[in-house]
Design goal:
The longest helix is centred in the N-terminal third of the chain and has 9 residues, at 7-15. The strands form 11 sheets. Strands 1, 2, 3, 4, 41, 42, 43 and 44 form an 8-stranded antiparallel beta sheet that branches. The protein has a 4-stranded antiparallel beta sheet with strand order 5-40-39-38, with no helix packed on it. 4% of the residues lie in helices and 45% in strands. It is elongated, with a radius of gyration of 35 Å. By secondary structure, it is mainly beta. The two termini are 14 Å apart.
Length: 711
């Protein structure tokens, strides 16, 4: 008669039942596993960061992507769009205007390639410099456009513009610098206004052109019989002068102070065609002069008639913003419609300084939300001195400065509990909020609509946090971030001669999954650093993520049908970290078999299981899977059948497939169970007919070896 099973025996039976672990919910990528036959135990990085990875942490790389349902699916290979012209290379500065790809090159040229044309076909954009400097001396920092105007900025803070329709024939050009005025304005009493000792008036002016204004002229002073507060159409002052012709002068801005006020305020603007005589009838000023200094109404601090001192630009809701010049803390705001390129006060332009003297530098400007969910221009800043990042909102204020004029001013306020960035291209507003990259990873700022509305920051890169904190913290000043078809693509944009140069980090916002793509691996072209990524959106061409390297411009396609035909690309790679039934791996595991479930499959792959067995020996089991025609609902089994401490999986080979599940059938070996019968955890073993087996019998104790071996 069999003895009654004890509680310990019941626990032993339960703990040793077959366990099925599903790797269905992919959580992230392992970016260091970027080459075949990688041994996670062979590197210090692997020992520190691989052994304790979750069992749903996979590396997905090269012609692979995660679907919304968390499956892994192959995609079409890269499409070559254009090669760099002979003797020169891409610099990474580019923009897409309709089907025109406009790029800068190391020889100082700007060229246009039409999507779909021969990859080697480029048309050079003529560059006219009033100073006579050749193209080869220029390094372009930004290429963009607004309305029908192509705008190009250089590292010398020069601005070149041209018409988009004629950019390949007439090209782009800058404007000559307009000298500061050297004569004070003429002030003439009008109506009942007389000379007197009631009020002291000071007036100066600047010349303006399509880009900005000069510095102020000498100041004219006059004492009159009535304060400007009392002026009207019956008594006022006429301010006049003469501007030189042939200098592309488009207007004059007039500034004034009155009585004891020490700050100049904007009085008015005179529009001109190309210089000549000008006059302005000034009808008076606001009495409360203390409001003049609430916003930036001050006179220009530099001559901007050759273009603002900036290296970057963007346009938001019909207004242009410029930054990145020698005064890294300054943000320039373009003028009203019709004068978007000008920062002159008279046409609505302005500038605002953000914490000058502290090392704060403006890095990125975009549109986001305030605490009350209102749209606002937000400025993301970095600080090379402290490595801290901040964010500021740009506030607009209308201030009445004269009896007939209300001027728009700007000021900033810091946004608390959020982060900035250190890169011009390192931030963007996509789907669920504002994403910004800095040395701690990729941050997401969302707007939590609660009883106390607030902006909330979360780090979506926590799954790959060691990569940022340990490896990338010092290499993100030129990071590039672009959003294409629900996926954020992130590259470093700098060369460090290591394995991260050609890597693209991909984050699916909907699936909340990470994977990587290494440009050049397994292909004919050599591996190159990635200079820039940008969205390619064209109705006449494939859409996706554009990749710029020194020698070529390629496209990761996101549109078009997924062809269930033989792959047109090289090996794909899938690898896991070190796996075990329990984490950390504190006991050995009997790994019976693995099952790989595919929705469809065509091509060939090698599945490999590599690990360390019970005795500390390294083992390897492989299986080849090959189908010349597409098969659906494919299950592939790989038998291991041994005791292992840890193990990891890898899949490589040229194939198209959708892998939606990996199942691993394992048995756990406890420290107290299975000392005698190996994997048999029952105190007695029954055969298929529910009869007690011939080779096993009941025992009093698992530690009574004599009773176990000798009936």
């Amino acid at each position: 008669m069999a003895k009654k099973k004890s509680t310990a025996t019941q626990k032993a039976m339960t703990s040793s039942e077959p366990r099925i672990t599903s790797l269905r919910q992919w959580a992230g990528v392992n970016v260091i596993e970027k080459y075949p036959n990688w041994n996670p135990l062979a590197t210090a990085f692997g020992e520190a960061n691989q052994a304790d990875l979750q069992d749903n942490f996979l590396m997905v790389q090269n012609n692979l992507a995660c679907t919304v349902s968390k499956s892994i699916e192959t995609r079409d290979d890269d499409i070559l769009i254009a090669n760099a012209p002979a003797g020169t290379s891409f610099t990474g500065v580019a923009c897409l205007q309709q089907d025109n790809l406009i790029c800068a090159f190391t020889d100082g040229s700007i060229r246009v390639h039409v999507l779909g044309d021969d990859p080697g076909e480029w048309t050079r954009v003529p560059v006219t410099d009033p100073d006579g400097e050749p193209d080869s001396s220029k390094t372009w920092t930004e290429i963009g456009y607004y309305a029908e105007t192509l705008i190009c900025l250089s590292d010398e803070a020069e601005c070149f513009i041209g018409a988009l329709g004629t950019m390949t024939t007439e090209g782009i050009s800058s404007y000559p610098l307009i000298e500061d005025p050297d004569k004070a304005p003429t002030m003439t009493n009008k109506g009942e206004l007389k000379d007197g000792d009631v009020s002291r008036i000071q007036v100066c002016y600047v010349y303006t052109n399509v880009f900005g204004s000069t510095l102020i002229s000498p100041v004219a002073t006059k004492f009159v019989s009535a304060s400007p507060v009392e002026w009207s159409a019956a008594q006022y002052m006429q301010v006049s002068g003469t501007a030189p012709t042939g200098k592309s002068i488009t207007g004059v801005d007039i500034y004034f102070t009155m009585d004891d006020s020490t700050e100049f305020a904007f009085a008015g603007h005179v529009t001109m065609t190309d210089g000549g005589k000008w006059s302005y009838n000034w009808l008076g000023a606001l009495a409360d002069t203390s409001q003049w200094t609430n916003v930036s109404l001050e006179v220009p601090t530099e001559n901007t008639t050759k273009g603002v001192n900036a290296r970057h630009m963007t346009h938001i809701d019909g207004r242009l913003y410029f930054w990145g010049g020698d005064q890294e803390y300054r943000l320039w705001i373009g003028g009203n419609p019709g004068n978007e390129l000008s920062v002159a006060r008279g046409v609505g332009g302005a500038f605002v300084d953000i914490e000058p003297g502290t090392g704060t530098s403006v890095e990125c400007v975009l549109k986001h939300k305030t605490y009350s969910a209102s749209s606002i221009i937000t400025v993301l800043c970095g600080n090379p001195n402290t490595e801290q990042v901040k964010r500021f909102n740009l506030l607009e204020t209308n201030v009445t400065v004269t009896n007939e004029l209300s001027s728009k001013g700007y000021m900033t306020e810091e946004v608390s509990n959020v982060v900035g960035c250190n890169s011009r291209w390192g931030a963007g507003v996509f789907e669920d909020g504002l994403y910004a990259v800095n040395r701690y990873g990729l941050a997401l700022t969302t707007h939590a609509m609660e009883y106390n509305n607030q902006l909330r920051v979360g780090w979506v890169s926590d799954q790959i946090k060691p990569i940022f904190t340990d490896r990338l913290g010092k290499r993100l000043n030129n990071a590039r971030l672009v959003y294409v078809d629900g996926i954020i693509h992130l590259v470093l944009g700098e060369e460090d001669s290591d394995w991260l140069d050609p890597v693209i980090f991909c984050y699916d916002i909907g699936a909340k999954a990470w994977w990587t793509y290494t440009y050049g691996t397994g292909r004919q072209q050599p591996t190159e650093k990635i200079l820039h990524v940008m969205a390619i959106d064209s109705q006449e061409f494939d859409e996706g993520c554009g990749i710029i390297t020194p020698s070529r411009f390629t496209l990761i396609p996101t549109t078009g049908p997924k062809l269930h035909t033989a792959p047109n690309f090289g090996d794909v790679y899938i690898e896991t970290g070190e796996l075990a039934v329990r984490q950390p791996p504190n006991e050995t595991t009997w790994l019976e078999q693995l099952e790989f479930d595919f929705d469809y499959f065509v091509g060939e792959i090698e599945i490999k299981v590599t690990g360390v067995d019970y005795y500390g020996r390294r083992f390897e089991v492989t299986k080849q899977v090959s189908y010349g025609d597409m098969v659906t609902n494919l299950q592939v089994w790989l038998r291991v059948g041994m005791l292992v401490r840890t193990y990891h999986l890898s899949i490589k080979g040229p194939a198209r497939f959708r892998l939606y599940q990996i199942l691993q059938k394992t048995y756990s070996q406890s420290a107290k169970v299975n000392l005698v019968y190996g994997l048999d955890a029952y105190s007695e073993v029954r055969n298929h007919y529910d009869e007690v087996g011939l080779d096993h019998h009941d025992i009093d104790s698992y530690n009574n070896l004599y009773h176990a071996l000798v009936p």
